Amino acid sequence: ACTPIATIQKNGCTVSTVFDCGSTKTTHTYHGGEFSAVHTYSPDWEFVSYRYANPKLPRMNHVPDSGRTTNMAELLETGASQTGGTFLLNTNIIKDRKYILSGRNEITGEVELSGRTFQAGRMSRVFEREPGKGGLEFEIDFYVTEDMSLFVEGSLQRSIMGNNHETFDESPQSVAWPGDEGFLSAVAVHGCG
Predict the structure, then answer these.
(1) Which of 9, 78, 97, 109 is the most exposed place for a label (fewest CB within 10 A)?
(2) CA distances to 68, 125, 128, 184, 190 from 85, in Å
(3) What is the C-alpha radius of gyration for the chain, rounded to an integer number of angstroms?
(4) What pLDDT, on the 0 to 100 scale, is given for residue 174?
(5) CA distance to 71, 102, 161, 174, per residue, from 132 (Å)
(6) Distance between CA atoms of 72 and 83, rounded to whole angstroms?
(7) What is the pLDDT along the chain (193 residues), one digit of tens a residue?
(8) How many CB atoms lie within 10 A of CB 34?
(9) How many helices (H) and strands (E) does the chain have?
């Protein structure tokens, strides 16, 4: 059974609810009122998988024991950590295509959201078929409470082999905790016009 932790209203007509499922934590995201994606993490926020809500679209899964995707404790203690590991891409056509993850995570400051202090930072991730050859690149803003009870991904920039740059403004605007108005809402309120 999963317990909802918080609902985050973001820019870009996006809202996400984070669930604690014991052995994992998941973030369910809605864009424009439509269920769009699920991020799965370990209990200490190691990135485990990403899948679109539409089962026909790609999904990425971390290969266990292949590297640390997000060492949150080290990141909060030292201000930086490295990212690594192997992921498998699956689609309706592709089965277990291997990608190597590399990158770096950094704390960049503090922000306050809905009365709570979050450490803000940036994740730089590259998924490559062959290390050093280029691939799918992400720059992701993130926010984490100091007690690591909540982790939120925000805006991101994406490019493929250094081309086709795209920016998605999904900066968090508010957090609704259990009992707050808007908790468990699938209706976004920012950037929907």
Answers:
(1) 109
(2) 6, 11, 11, 32, 35
(3) 16
(4) 97
(5) 23, 10, 11, 38
(6) 11
(7) 899 999 999 999 999 999 999 999 999 999 999 999 999 999 999 999 999 999 999 999 999 999 999 999 999 999 999 999 999 999 999 999 999 999 999 999 999 999 999 999 999 999 999 998 999 999 999 999 999 999 999 999 999 988 889 999 999 999 999 999 999 999 999 999 8
(8) 11
(9) 1, 13
Cβ contact 21:2 at 8 Å: yes
pTM, two decimals, is: 0.94
Which are the contacts of 81, defined by CB distance < 8 A and separation ≥ 6? 68, 70, 71, 72, 74, 75, 104, 105
Nearest-angstrom CA–CA distance, 171 and 5? 19
Q: How many CA atoms lie within 13 Å of 111's alpha carbon, on the beta-carbon side? A: 17
What lies within 8 Å, CB to CB, of 22 at 6+ separation is: 1, 2, 43
The answer to whether 143 and 119 have CB atoms below 8 angstroms apart is yes
